[in-house]
Description:
By secondary structure, this protein is an alpha/beta fold. Helix content is 36%, strand content 20%. A hairpin with a 2-residue loop joins strand 4 and strand 5. Helix 3 (96-107) packs parallel to helix 5 and helix 5 (140-152) runs parallel beside helix 6. The longest helix is centred in the middle third of the chain and has 15 residues, at 170-184.
Amino acid sequence: MIRFSDVSLTYGSSATPALSGIDLTIEAGESVAVVGPSGSGKTSLLRLMNALIVPTGGRVTVNGLVTNDPSSVWDVRRLVGLIFQNPDNQLVSTTVERELAFGMENLGLVSQTIRERVEETLVRFRLQDLRDRAPHRLSGGEKQRVAIAAVLAMRPACLLLDEPTSLLDAAGRREVWRMLEELRADSSKTVVHVTQFPDEIGLSSRVLVVFEGKVVFDSTPAELFELDEELSRWSLRRPATMDIAHELRDAGYAIPEGIWTLDGLLDALAPGHGGSA
């Protein structure tokens, strides 16, 4: 669905490219996490995917549409929706219900279709009780849930999320995690998720590590977490749950390998599953 062919990106007169030599393909239905240290090029990579910026070298295509072709930009953005780090940057309406309708109105959808999709979206994302609330008065997690729901109501084929939980408290992060888990289970949606949190990497089946403007790793979360020297060099770390699981194994508990989420660890410790060796 999204293809990078020898892509490079340089901002202004900078002597150092933000990205260089990017060759990768993201297929329809994939769930991909993008990680790397601050300033590595993660957000630039994401914004190239929906033509918010265009490459200075090489080519990005979305379903065959070339993103630096001005005549394709509108179609690319209909296919690829982007969620920003701060939901306040994209919430514009006076009520949640109006927010869900806003993007579809801009697409020129007929009123009946908009009404039907608004109702479906309110139910799907558990927003019925918030429909008449002003978005700016919601909690951080609720705002991000509304922002994601509003983009998905437009039915993009791909959803891009740029560190959607970085400004949220623990409760807000859990709200967004539930949505990401639901989206991962939806094979009709492609999801690309930039994150700084190790425990969010496991919400995706594929992970890209961006370091110094290059994609230096492209595989599964499990394979990434098996690395040692590379994680240190890339300024990444394993989820704390993995370290706890390792210590529990050393203490004699029968904890399976490959657990990196708190829910997985609790399941392994539950009666009938875990316990002393």
